[in-house]
Amino acid sequence: MVCVVHCLGMPLLLTLAPMLSLHWLEAEHFHWLMLLLAVPLSVFGLWQGFQRHTRWLVPALGAFGLGLMAYDLLPAHDDHTHGLTLIGVLLVALAHTLNIRGIRQSACH
């Protein structure tokens, strides 16, 4: 059985090997694409939650995180380290976590 898995898996793994390279994550257009996906999804989700729990900190934290992500992609920050993007992503994730908690708490009351 191990031989069958090995014989079927190796050609598949070798075929997919170039796609497993993470160099495409470094491309600038990838970061812009992720930001263009994150903004409408985050705005929609955080706004829906805000309408239930009415805590201004949650959408403000999300907006600040999205702002950091966008600011880091400006040409003036062409250092390709994306440190602000990482902080922004963490802030947006925190905002979504607080949003979910706020929705759950408002549903209990």
Please explain how this structure is put together:
It contains four helices and no strands. The chain starts with a helix and ends with a helix. The protein has 109 residues and is mostly helical. It has helices at residues 2-20, 28-53, 57-72, 83-108. It has one domain.
SS field, number of helical segments: 4
Strand content: under 5%
Overall mean confidence score, pLDDT: 83
Please tell me the total number of domains.
Answer: 1
Spatial extent as radius of gyration: 20 Å
Major sheet description: none
Number of strands: 0
Structural class: mainly alpha
The parts where pLDDT drops under 50 for at least 5 residues are: none
- Written as H for each helix and E for each strand, in order along the chain, the element string is HHHH
Cα distance spanning the termini = 56 Å
**Shape summary:** flat
The helicity comes to: over 70%
Short description:
With 109 residues, the protein is an all-alpha fold.
Topology:
Blueprint: H1 2-20, H2 28-53, H3 57-72, H4 83-108
Helix pairs in contact: 2-3, 2-4, 3-4
Keyphrases for this structure?
109 residues, mainly alpha
